[in-house]
Amino acid sequence: MTNLSINTNVPNYPSFKSSKRRIIYNDFSTIDWTLDSQKERERQQEIKKLTGYSGFISQLFEMCQESFIIILVGCITGLFAGFIDITEGWLSNMREGYCREGFYLNKQFCCWLESDCTDWVEYNDSSFLGTIFGFLVYCILGLLFAVVAAILVKEYAKYAAGSGIPEVKTILGGFIIHRFLGFRTLIVKCLGLVLSVASGLSVGKEGPSVHLACCIANITSRLVPKYKGNQANRRELMSAACAAGVSVAFGAPIGGVLFSLEEVSYYFPHKTMWKSFFMAMIAAITLQIINPFRTHKLVLFQVELNRDWFGFELPIFILLGVLGGLYGVLFIKMNLKVIKYRRTSWISNHPIAEVACIALVTAIISYQFNFLSGGTAELVANLFRECKEIEGDFHGLCSNSYAQNIFLLLLVAVLKAVFTIFTFGIKVPAGIFIPSMAVGATVGRAIGMVIQAIYDAFPNFWVFASCPGGECVTPGTYAIIGAAAALGGVTRMTVSLVVIMFELTGALSYVLPIMMTVVIAKWIGDTYGGESIYDALIHLNGYPFLSSELKRGKAATAADLMTSVEDLVCIQSEGQTIQSLDTIYRENRYKGFPVVTADNLIIGYFGRAELLSSIQTFTQATQTQSNAIHFQPSFSLFDDSIDFQSWMDTTPMMVHPQMMQETVQELFIKMGLRYVLVARNGVLKGIITKKDLLRHFN
Amino acid sequence: MTNLSINTNVPNYPSFKSSKRRIIYNDFSTIDWTLDSQKERERQQEIKKLTGYSGFISQLFEMCQESFIIILVGCITGLFAGFIDITEGWLSNMREGYCREGFYLNKQFCCWLESDCTDWVEYNDSSFLGTIFGFLVYCILGLLFAVVAAILVKEYAKYAAGSGIPEVKTILGGFIIHRFLGFRTLIVKCLGLVLSVASGLSVGKEGPSVHLACCIANITSRLVPKYKGNQANRRELMSAACAAGVSVAFGAPIGGVLFSLEEVSYYFPHKTMWKSFFMAMIAAITLQIINPFRTHKLVLFQVELNRDWFGFELPIFILLGVLGGLYGVLFIKMNLKVIKYRRTSWISNHPIAEVACIALVTAIISYQFNFLSGGTAELVANLFRECKEIEGDFHGLCSNSYAQNIFLLLLVAVLKAVFTIFTFGIKVPAGIFIPSMAVGATVGRAIGMVIQAIYDAFPNFWVFASCPGGECVTPGTYAIIGAAAALGGVTRMTVSLVVIMFELTGALSYVLPIMMTVVIAKWIGDTYGGESIYDALIHLNGYPFLSSELKRGKAATAADLMTSVEDLVCIQSEGQTIQSLDTIYRENRYKGFPVVTADNLIIGYFGRAELLSSIQTFTQATQTQSNAIHFQPSFSLFDDSIDFQSWMDTTPMMVHPQMMQETVQELFIKMGLRYVLVARNGVLKGIITKKDLLRHFN
């Protein structure tokens, strides 16, 4: 270590390398984007300087490492998704029956090449005992899976619970949450996700897939120097990983890129879009090769629709949009209430028991409804399909009477909504996409059936004049639109949602109705409900996330936002020693300290973590407890004072006290700043931190 | 006017309203984003303050005006697109024949409800004279249309020439180009576009559609106060209009939103995405209602593909990607050469003659090739289709021998490429999308036919093992992928291009191949060619556009980038009069002047345009030529000095001389700054302008 360097530069503007600055990231601290950007440039220049054989190798490696990591993360994400799909299918099937050929075969593989499938034995053989036995196995295995998932989460990785998207969003916003993207979280989340989905709980795997992909990106990125020491670069890779996660969860690579852009990422320049696009593609190709469903489709519920829509359907689409928006508002409100109650009541001490109860209730009730017993994804898949496409009529969806089906579907929708409200937030990996879509799709299909019943009864009604005879009503399309509306209401996605629905269904001619419904659902949701579920959770958890939207309040200047200099603890640049700094550190809890001269002229800014680290370094390394410290270039050659410049931000962003709050906000949002010093003629007047801003506008 | 205000505030931080700042935008000046943002907040607050009946009306109007304008712009864009589609179709048909029922009917309407269509008379009736007459009419009308388009552009609106996307991009980047988005440009571009497309020139209508939509947005936005005086708000609306333009040109609303995001817009926050989405939808619905092609499809070449792809096709897709990338590189290089030659040679003085020559040559050659004579969009549409879908076999595309067709298609591709190189840049409205797609599609279809020929000859070749018998090769899909590759090579679009291809073709199962091809084309293009055609044109035209990508050079600080204070002309805050300011204005050509005290402490920044305007105001309004001027709050109540604060930026952004260049760049890129003052302890050290940055990194 060369901390005791003697600075011999006597220039007008000393060429002090601020990227040599040491910076310490604690848990829940913010990263310094611009410093990382400087570091990246210097790393690139170091490599360009190398010559000869080793230089060539280094430069080649530099060229390849980024593509290598993107391809690697994409492939691993695809592999994980394949593993999850296959294992989850096997475990789900296990609750219904077993294969005579071997217990390790799921229903599909067991019946491979057999038309009547005699090797697959269902527990429920319609006899009295069989019915009871089937019911018991279904419930007990469901309970078991859920409890194992909850134990895994509780014992090994608490961050594996839930969807993970609010946290990923916060991390991409520039925060450090240690262990959230670690190896242990990855493994537990993967296994837990398989178990929680297979247990029949009302959970999806999209959010968790995004979390998994980010874990993979975070772990893999440590392999190469470009990402290893650079948190900003790593966040770029994670933005791409979000795209890959959705790409494999939904089989929607483009939708994934847009999801990352619209919903998750904080900073998404063109080159990140390009990387996301590339990684989402690699992940999708990997999953295509694994072919987990043996259908050459990427997801279970990929359908293809080629129908046109008619004018009389417009009001129904609008109705679906309104219903979706209202569902979103209601769901978020109720879900937050449940979460808050859970946290403040005795339930918070018994997470596993809670999971067990919910899993058991879900299993018992679901078993009574054919539509629910097979899992949420299968339900959605069948609701989306046209009647002629549905294999085995899916429990009478197309053959039973309209009245019966409509009633059943509405009941299922209500049950699903209630399950989801209680489930989203318990301590197992759980996504919100598929359950939301299921609620919307059941309601949509039910409404579609109502319309079909009307059409069947009055085919010559003038309303149907725009439909030139034949197939006027396709309930499947209403299910698709209903699913989009409900998901739109809950997540407030727009473009990405339409593209995802588009990639799922190939409903080219339905783009306009889907767009319309999503617009209405979002509008209703924003007007009556405020935030999306993810933003609401970020808020509820108190994550330090600064929305990228400019908040407009009443007129204010930097002076109004700042903590005034009178209330600050500043480090005087003259006469400090290690001991005096240590005292300042211990006696104050502030996150950082401006360094000023006796006249309050700003010299720099010292972060709390860096202060501790610098004090420790010198306390351990040297016996210079009482040596003087200098924070500015020292011009004497034989000075024994210690140079603290490298621990300090020597060029903090400064603003005028009269600067308008919009500009200050934009500085924080767009530059990703952590603090801004307010100064006039170089004299410190105050400091504005991200917290000040959050306090002022939230 | 209350310019002679006497400032009576004596606070620590005077509550000076910087949004009352007067700012003057000259042609090619940059807008001040943050000032506009402040103005918007204050406007909103003014309205909130209103009470009673008029307050209610104002607030209601405030709520509705944005949606109203978005819907209005969307509708008008849809109407214009419908008008262009219908008129262009009619004019194009006019070159081939006429309707006995009336000359105002195009072929489609003339043949309405007739199967054999006896009312439509083609000039070329296959007799000797008929052939010659048909040829002459075809060429003369083509020439006439092109020349009229060129005259319109030359005489009435020079900005209507070309695609308009580079300029729109520059404008959205924050620049002012007067008259570029005016009413006259709108009308001339619309008529000129119809004529230039109908003339058979190798031009598309996508770029011009975007320009048209922006004109409509710009003109319409003047109706309401939210946009009238606010350039930043207006740019947001224009970003949305770009989406609407592509939406109607391609029938791809989502693709339009992404095009705006990826290719054109500079600043695209979530609420802009949401507005773009909404406007693109309205525009598409309007066009759908107009139904210009009477097919219930949004565009001429909307097809629907439902085939899967096979493993053996992968290398061919990769080949198409490589060819597309290389075509892009070659096209941009050649096109720029032609444009540069045109500008420096005598041709520049004869734009109409040049258009006439190119139109005539294009018409004469196109008439010899059946594929070319019908227009580019029709060619692309038919190349995309499967053989069984193509009406009338499109000049033997599916019936002639492979060898003949392959040769013809390749020849057509070369001709089309050459035409486009010479055409893109002449003084008529001209887009680049459709011609690029045509080149790619012809090559793709030709390659598809080669593969089909191989398959027909050796159906049992091991390569085809992955294809389970039957239809293994669909040349139409290769045309689609080829088109995507060529367009990707020329424009370097990624996500938006895939979504556009997706919306055009509904090729759900081809998403991965299209993605792959686009990735390869972009990679090849970026590696061997540098910029996209739009960026290259921005560069060539010297538009002051700052790319949103961070440029990394060698280590530099703000001090290295700045123009040093010694080389600057500063306004001393003390002792200035109108006369002395006038002298400073006339004796210097600088774009702005820092205002400093005798000690070089920064007080503010005075822009050149504002300086002129303030001088003129006071010279005309008062007889106070020799009155003193104050730039800082004046504390004496009975001071007759003139307050110049409102003309000045009193809180300019200041940076430390040692600040790293990355941070400075990011300040300019993300905050949309126009200048930054470099200061140390409040003392001016220099100034960095956008030009300094462009000079340093380009």
UniProtKB/TrEMBL annotation, chains A, B:
Name of the featured protein: Chloride channel protein
Keyword Membrane tagged: yes
First-listed, main subcellular location of the protein, grouped into a coarse class: membrane
Record domain CBS: where: 648-698
Domain of life per record: Eukaryota
Source species: Boothiomyces macroporosus
Listed GO MF terms: voltage-gated chloride channel activity
UniProt record similarity statement: Belongs to the chloride channel (TC 2.A.49) family.
